[in-house]
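Hello,

I think I submitted the uracil job twice by accident. Can you confirm which output corresponds to this input? Input:
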Amino acid sequence: MQVKIIDHPLIQHKLSLVRDVKTGTKEFRELLEEISTLMAFELTRNLPLEETQVETPLTTCTCKMLSGKKIAIVPILRAGLGMVNGIVKLIPAAKVGHIGVYRDHETLKPVEYFCKLPTDVAERELIVVDPMLATGGSAVAAIEMLKAKGAKQIKLMCLVAAPEGVAVMNAHHPDVEVYVAAVDSHLNERGYIVPGLGDAGDRIFGTK
Ligand code: URA
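Support: Only one job matched these inputs. Its output is below.
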């Protein structure tokens, strides 16, 4: 299965705080941003480096710097927005695209309602972000849309996944690596991840 659980102690500690029903909007936002930064650290582990000459106060030495691989972050609206700033802190030159999909109540099929991407999407590595990988419907649809627009290298970064969502992602997009902080027990009858953290969008934006 193409899922990598990032179980760093700092991430697990912050995730427990995020799950807590007593955690308010301000703290929830801050924690989600911090976890996103820590997860992005792991996601970018294999970024290519190139050698360069650096003059230190003492001598000249051969050092390594990022070779300038182009990255774009693509939050799935709206909850994915809560993860963007945490990644941009680490990769300030990243472009940010946006994609919005909703589920049609009658057909139950995902419908794209917004998509704005960098023009050179085919040359960029995309980090698609959404805190909750529940049924997998939105992520699968969003990634299908990104591929249709030329995207070739895609990673998906979520906070919490349900096993059902991971399986659906893997079945539809086996080429996409999925990074999560936890895979929870199951989905309930209303499509919520259990134990989960509730509705991520509502908790980020303070809505109900
Ligand atoms: N979306 C959420 O925000 N929470 C869930 O538990 C499932 C989907």
